[in-house]
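Homework help board

Subject: predicted structure for assignment chain

Our instructor gave us this sequence and asked us to write out the predicted structure in token form, then describe one feature. I got the tokens but I'm not sure how to describe them. Can anyone check?
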Amino acid sequence: MLRVQRGDLRAFEELVEKYKQAVVNLIARMLGDPVEAEDLGQNVFIQVHRSAGRYRVSAKFSTWLFTIARNLCLNELRRRSRHPAASLDAPHPEREHEPQHAVADRERSGPSETLLEGELVAKIREALLDLPENQRLAILLWRDEELAYEDIAAVLGCSLTAVKSLIHRGRETLKRRLKPYLRTGAWEAEP
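My token output:
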């Protein structure tokens, strides 16, 4: 990022290449919309480029980057709540940003296993989307991006204790929500 500050476009391209998928995956999980995540992901890197002069080495670059992604996600969620719109093209996020090992596992499994796995992934994604924004983001940064609690605290702008609490409460909510489904296969709306 320091090279980007000096106008090195190749360094910027390297940052985009290295972090693009992680940013898009995070946004897709926050918004539940992989198509919108691609657009918003581009906006994150536009913001990174515009803000290069203000970047300070006070934390890891990824922490700064995910903070920008978080802020743009929150802005989008606020915009959506003010101007709700039904999509004619309901996105199918189940397989959009699937890791390669999951594709290989699915190809080795039978059709019924693949169907059940896809359904479980969809239910987990739905339960994640029902979490409050900060809980969802804390869990996604911890689980998918493998950020340390300290880095998550920096992204969320809260204390280490708050991060631990957000992750704990989010995991408990997910367990409570998914337990009946895992036992019976029935999906109940959140009370």
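Reply (TA_rk): Your tokens look well-formed. For the description, you could write something like this. The chain has two domains: 1-85, 109-184. That's the kind of observation they're looking for.
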